[in-house]
Design a protein that fits this description.
This protein is α+β, with helices and mostly antiparallel strands. It is 32% helix and 21% strand. The protein has 10 helices and 19 strands. The strands form 5 sheets. Strands 1, 2, 3, 4, 5, 11 and 12 form a 7-stranded mixed sheet that branches. Strands 15-14-13-18-19 form a 5-stranded mixed sheet, sandwiched between helices. Helix 8 links the parallel strand 18 and strand 19.
């Protein structure tokens, strides 16, 4: 059965969804199980000695034994001309992401019995034409053909529009709270899809990971107090298992009132019970900061153009986020089904062949008059628009240039200059006897 495949690849995790062609019409998108019944896989990759890229459970198991060959947060390095240096050699970040996407496509082919008709992959809304082009070329080189790229916030809107409907010209807000990314955007329905009018990212916007770290510290403190050994935490190799347990507990607390966090200690495994109230107390400052940042990017939109704010992303699963969003944002708030699945489902909708057009990942035309002049830099947001914002009349007054991807910090040890001979405290060696005699003959 023909189907379209959508992928939502982030720094923390990846999801996929398919939309099948039934009776001449495209069915509603459905999440795709990537490993067993798991719809989500961690975005951890492992590169073997012969250059094979592993993903999913195989990558996690190998990474614990050989962490130097594992790669995380590779999405932020796409577009950087400096490759990642691994024991197997240098690797461009876009090539690693493309290999991950090819692995997901292989899982879809195994599940569906045939390759997809078309593939769409999400990307961060802050990307400009250069990064999109680099990734598109890498995907083509990985055998995925002409893959459609669209911003993650546009994919969320696509999922909502396919289910609820959105008239041409409708304006929506999107607040995306993920594990390693938090952003907000204003999108408008066009003939070819949803166009990003403005966006903003939160500096150090990793709400999901920040909450995981806070929960891990809380669980470690509780476990140390229970065992009477405050310094009894297991070696650093066990911290990944602890954070994985915290992520699972956070997901469980979205529907339950209590959950257990397994804490590896030197004396064994200590199980710490955590309540939803405790998690909310730890997470409230993180979630509130991200929502206030989203309010700043949505605020300039006139009342007559305001529609609905879509709350999406894995962190938006938390009841705390659903509780705080209406009081913080000035638009009506809607959580589109499972907020963690929204971007993957929307990517599958955008990937359907035969659509009137495609969401423009490289905008270069007229922009809406909702956003004019300079980007809405008030608050923590630093950039706006998906490449260009035009003032009324089509001028380029609001254009901004894409900055290169951030590189990991480099520590350089300063070199000390050689000491001057005049400062040497040791006596100079005396010349040997034959040297003195030769000098006397010359004299």
């Amino acid at each position: 059965m023909p189907y379209a495949l959508g992928m939502d690849i982030g720094n923390s995790s990846a999801r996929a969804a398919v939309s099948r062609l039934r009776g001449g019409a495209w069915a509603a998108p459905e999440p795709l199980s990537l490993e067993g019944t798991d719809e989500t896989v961690e975005s951890t990759l492992f590169v073997t000695g012969d250059g094979t890229v592993l993903a999913g459970s195989r990558a996690r198991s190998h990474a614990s034994a050989e962490p130097a060959r594992s790669v995380r947060d590779v999405l932020d390095r796409v577009g950087d001309p400096v490759p990642l240096l691994l024991p197997s050699g240098p690797w461009p970040a876009a090539g690693l992401v493309a290999s991950f996407a090819a692995w997901i496509a292989e899982r879809a082919t195994e599940r569906e019995g045939e390759p997809p008709e078309r593939i769409a992959v999400t990307h961060p809304s802050s990307w400009g034409p250069y990064r999109c082009r680099v990734l598109r070329e890498a995907l083509h080189g990985a055998g995925l053909g002409d893959t459609l790229l669209l911003p993650g916030v546009a994919a969320v809107a696509e999922a909502y529009g396919a289910r609820e409907g959105a008239a041409a010209g409708a304006t929506l807000g999107v607040c995306l709270l993920g594990g390693a990314r938090a952003c907000a955007a204003v999108v408008r329905r066009e003939r070819s899809g949803f166009d990003v009018l403005a966006y903003g990212t939160v500096p150090d916007g990793r709400p999901g990971r920040r909450i995981d770290d806070l929960l891990a510290d809380h669980a470690l403190a509780r476990a140390g107090s229970a065992t009477g050994n405050a310094n009894g935490a297991a070696p650093a190799g066990a911290m990944d298992r602890l954070r994985a347990g915290c992520r699972q507990a956070k997901e469980d607390l979205a529907t339950e009132q209590h959950a257990e966090v397994p804490v590896p200690m030197r004396g064994g495994l200590e199980r710490v019970s955590v309540s939803r109230a405790e998690l909310d107390r730890l997470a409230r400052p993180v979630v509130a900061t991200a929502l206030r940042a989203a309010r700043d990017v949505l605020a300039p939109v006139p009342d007559e153009h305001r529609g609905t704010v879509l709350l999406a992303g894995g962190t938006a699963r938390m009841p705390l986020a659903v509780e705080l969003a209406p009081a913080t944002l000035t638009w009506p708030v809607v959580t589109p089904g499972d907020p963690a699945r929204a971007a993957a489902l929307g990517a599958a909708v955008a990937a359907r062949p035969g659509r009137a057009g495609e969401p423009d990942s490289e905008p270069d035309g007229e922009r809406a008059e909702l956003v004019t002049g300079s980007p809405p830099a008030a608050g923590p947001f630093g950039q706006a628009g998906n490449g260009r914002i035009a003032a009324p009349g089509g001028s380029d007054e609001g254009e901004w240039r894409e900055s290169p991807p951030p590189r990991p910090p480099v520590s350089i040890t300063p070199l000390e200059p050689p000491r001057s001979r005049r400062r040497m405290s040791l006596p100079l060696p005396r010349p040997k006897r034959w040297q003195r005699e030769r000098e006397e003959e010359r004299a």
